[in-house]
Amino acid sequence: MPLALLALAVVAFGIGTTEFATMGLLPQIADGLDVSVPHAGNLVSAYALGVVVGAPLLTGIGARIPHKRLLLILSAVFFVGNAASALAPNFGLLFAARVLAGLPHGALFGVGAVVASRLVAPDRAARAVSTMFLGLTVANIVGVPAGTALGQQLGWRYAYAAVAAIGVLAFVALALLIPHQPRGTHSGVMHELRAMKNKQVMIGLATAVVGFGGYFAVYSYLVPMLTHLTGISDSSTTLVLALFGVGMTLGTLIAGPLTDRALRPTLYGGFALLAAALVALHFTIEHLVPALVVITVIGALSALITTPVQMLLMTKAHEAPTMAAASNHSAFNLANAGGAWLGGLVIAAGWGWSSPTLVGAALAVIGLGLAVTGGYLDRDSRVSKVVTTSAPAPAGERSSPAAPAQDQASPCRQGGTGGG
After folding, report:
1. 80: pLDDT strictly greater than 90
2. What is the largest CA-CA distance in the chain?
3. Nearest CA among 101, 65, 108, 353 for reference residue 217
4. Neighbouring C-beta atoms of residue 84, cutoff 10 Å
5. How many CB atoms lie within 10 A of CB 394?
6. Is 410 helix (H, G, I), strand (E, B) or coil?
7. For the chain, which has fewer Cβ within 10 Å, the N-terminal or C-terminal residue?
8. Which fold has domain 4-377?
9. Domain ranges across the chain
């Protein structure tokens, strides 16, 4: 794997740290700005709002900008947003800073995924993308606990300052390690938006919103589940969340090779196993060791699904994969909001702290149904190849109509759609 993937992993590490560290620092932020903890919780929504809006907006604005330059611009916005968060004098400005910090999130991942897939041979594209995602999973093991501890000991502003420093490191790494990747002659926002009209892209985004909603329905309430039902102390929940991150890392490591070999079967199996694991957690949450094992498995399965969803969207967006890849992260944040809302509904209805696990399992099953529907509708399509340039394929490189249908998520080399 090229060293340039390390730069993309550093970006993902910083994004993962800033996205989740706020959740562990809400009491400190509330005390520091003289607001209630629930009111401080709106900062999590502020970041998510930035992701949902920023992914398509910044990807569209940067549709004609070469990928390396766009990555540098986005990482600069990431730095400014987190530096502003560390310096914000009041809640209103901190809210605005968190929106700003979230704006480049989806675009960084979307452009980064396309860049990563172009750095390697076609049959290793998913492994390259999953290597970038390793930065996100490692953030859950190291970055989020370290940021939370730093904020608790020295003050919440130091946590955001540390993330801003990671942003500087990411900028330098991108500038030194990422090669120049020119855009095609047909690049542009309208070209990207036309690719988004693809039926398979829309089904893929719906699959991400609903299917990952099942994961977030549980993850959002994992800490109170552990303290109320498993009997784990508040101080120990950070270690359990780190264990969850270990599971995510293992899932990411195996997702790349599996997706390169068989995209849709990996996606189907991931959702089916996730639904089963969420049901298992419902029955094991009151028993420490089984619960910890199942939580680790859930972390692995959530990561296992991420790569094939990302590669599917890049595949089906044809000549303009960047907008689809970025919009996937808007879908993740919609899943975060919707899953947390549904999980909170069943808890508030008196169904018990373990009830979000069953809601999550139901959403995972629906996500599986959407994925299978997409596969059924795609059964007669030509061979799928991830296109990593905005230029249209030369006529001699287009897939043959007689080619057998399959879902190999392999990017073509620069300048074409790859042979059938």
Report:
1. yes
2. 67
3. 353
4. 18
5. 10
6. strand
7. N
8. Growth Hormone; Chain: A; (1.20.1250)
9. 4-377
pLDDT number for residue 349: 87
- Tokens coding 216: 């977030």
DSSP 226: I
Nearest 5 degrees, angle CA 202-CA 208-CA 210?
100
Q: Judge contact between 12 and 109, C-beta under 8 A.
A: yes
Pairing of strands 385-386, 410-411: parallel
pLDDT of residue 188: 57
Q: Residue 396 is encoded by which pair of tokens?
A: 């001699």
- The percent of residues in the chain predicted with pLDDT above 70, rounded, is 85
Lowest mean pLDDT of 136-145, 248-257, 347-356, name the range.
136-145
The average confidence (pLDDT) of the chain is 82
d(CA 338, CA 321): 26
- Residue count of the chain: 420
Query: What is the pLDDT confidence band of residue 167, given thresholds at 50, 70 and 90?
Result: very high
Q: How far apart are CA 281 and CA 46, in angstroms?
A: 30
Q: Crossing angle, helix 321-348 and helix 189-196, to 10 degrees?
A: 50
